[in-house]
Every structure is written in C-alpha cells, then in structure tokens.
Amino acid sequence: VNLTSGAITFNILQLAPTITAARTYTFGSTAHTINGNFDINPSSTGANALTVNMGATLTVAATATTTITGSGAGPATATLDTTSSNRFLATGRLDIQTNGTLTANSSTITISNATAGGIGFIRTGTFTANTSTVKYTGAASFVLTSGTFTGSSAFYNLQLALGGAVGTSVKVYTFGSGAITVNNTLDLNPSDGDTGTAYMQV
User: Which of 15, 31, 144, 172 is the most exposed place for a label (fewest CB within 10 A)?
Assistant: First the structure.
C-alpha cells in the first residue's frame, strides 16, 4: 500500500491496521513532518507482520515519540525500515516495544528530546543498527537509553551533541542501566549545533 503522495504535515499519525496476512506500507518520496506522536501498532490474531518503508526524510516533533510495536493474539509484529536508500529519521523520543523492530540500514537517526527528563531511546523490541548513526541532539538534560544495546541490537555509530543549547548551564546526558555496545564510533561533540556556551556532561 502506498501511504502518501506529495509533502504532508500530519498532526498525529497512527498506523494501526488489523491484518490477516503480511502487509507492506510505503511512504511517498517527498519528506513528511509529524507534529505529534507517530505510532505503528498493527493487530492480528495470527503472527502477521506489517512493514513500513520510508520513502523520504521523516521528521517527528522534538517533543513527540515514535513508537513501534504490535498487538493482538498473534501477536502482529511491526517494522519501520529506513530502506536501502538510507532515509533520515528525526524524532523527539524513540520507543521500540515488544513485537517492534527498527531497521536502520546506514541512515542517521536523530533523537532530539526537547523536554527535560524522560528517556530518549527505549528498546524492548529489536533495533537492527546495521551501519547507521544514532545522534542525540537534545538541549535539555535527559536519560539517553532504556534497555540493553548489545549484540544484534548494539549501536554502530553513536554521537552525542547539544543541538542548539543556549547559555552556560551544564546539560547532563545519562545512559540507562542496561549495557551499551558501540561497534564503530562513539563521538562526543558538544559544539555540534550549540548556539551558546553550554557544556555537556555524560
């Protein structure tokens, strides 16, 4: 199913079909913006899968959450795939729940959590990093991760930036209690996007 054609700004976007067989949804080739939460949550009485392919850059508001999960007796599973074209995904927070998968390919995934507190990236489902870069750009202090990011769910490149912090305060990024593995590059770059003289503490 082709979901869209042309540039669209959504308020809230929910992809929550009841499926009886495997289904694939594909966004159009023009960038899309979502001003609220983006939820992928198919339901099925059987073990059926919904794959959502990105067709261009997808930007979810810095105060909102992208959630990938599946439900029903099956349960259904859901995958958000940036595809081999390595589409760019930006979101305030990212929540890969049980029965959910993010396939990141070689894309950049930016997590910008604009709200103080909270957790930037929650993983209880499957994060397939491949050769992607996960970049944190939150200007507020917050917890970076919940869940483990090791083995097949390890980060490939991980970058911590300040993303437009202003002033002289210290912004504290805190990793959650789960183990973290970065298979390639860990980059702490507080000057990337910083418009003031704030400091990063990890």
Answer: 172
pLDDT at site 118: 79
Are 69 and 101 spatial neighbours (Cβ–Cβ below 8 Å)?
A: no
- pLDDT at residue 176 in the model: 93
CA gap 89, 54 in Å, rounded: 9
Q: Say which amino acid occupies 50.
A: L
The Cα 88–Cα 59 span in angstroms is: 8
- Map residue 168 onto helix, strand or coil: coil
Task: Measure the CA–CA gap between 57 and 114, rounded to whole angstroms.
Answer: 20
Burial 7-24 (b: 16+ CB within 10 A, else e): eeeeeebebebebeeebe
Contact (Cβ atoms closer than 8 angstroms) between residue 88 and residue 62:
no
Q: What is the pLDDT of residue 40?
A: 98
Which token pair is 79?
Answer: 């995958």
Q: pLDDT averaged over consecutive 10-residue blocks of the chain (202 residues)? A: 94 98 97 97 97 97 96 97 97 96 98 81 97 88 92 95 60 89 90 50 58
* Helix H or strand E segment including 171: strand 170-174
The per-residue b/e assignment along 42-76, b for 16 or more CB within 10 angstroms, e otherwise, is bbbeeebbbbbbbbebbbbbbebbbbbbbbbebbb
The number of CA neighbours under 13 Å toward the Cβ of 201 is 7
Angstrom distance (rounded) from CA 188 to CA 61: 24
Q: Which helix (H) or strand (E) holds 39?
A: strand 38-40
pLDDT of residue 9: 96
